[in-house]
Specification:
Order of helices and strands: HEEHH
CATH topology: Butyryl-CoA Dehydrogenase, subunit A, domain 3
Shape: rod-shaped
Distance between the termini: 10 Å
Oligomer: single chain
CATH class: Mainly Alpha
Number of helices: 3
Number of strands: 2
Helix content: over 70%
Strand content: 5-15%
CATH architecture: Up-down Bundle
Structural class: mainly alpha
CATH superfamily: Butyryl-CoA Dehydrogenase, subunit A, domain 3
Number of domains: 1
Strand order of the largest sheet: 1-2
Length: 73
C-alpha cells in the first residue's frame, strides 16, 4: 500500500477512534485500540523510511534488484 493511502487510512482510523463511543467513552481511549493505532503509524513510518533509503541508493547508483524487492513485499 502506498504511503499516501496508508496515511489516509491512519488518519481516518484515528478520527473514527476519537469519535466512536463505547461504554460511555471514545474507543480511542482503550489500550488495545491505542496499540493498534501505534502499530499502524509505526508501519507507515517504516515504509516511508524504506522508500527514502531506496531512493538514496538509486541516486547513488548502488541499488540492486534485491533492494527493490524489499519495497514490493
Amino acid at each position: 500500500m502506498g504511503s499516501s493511502a496508508s496515511s489516509g487510512a491512519y488518519e481516518f482510523s484515528l478520527k473514527y477512534a476519537q469519535e466512536r463511543e463505547q461504554f460511555g467513552r471514545p474507543i480511542g481511549r482503550f489500550q488495545l485500540v491505542q496499540d493498534l493505532l501505534v502499530r499502524m503509524l509505526g508501519n507507515i513510518t517504516a515504509c516511508q523510511c524504506l522508500a527514502l533509503r531506496l531512493s538514496q541508493m538509486q541516486d547513488a547508483g548502488i541499488m540492486r534488484d534485491e533492494h527493490a524487492s524489499l519495497a514490493k513485499a
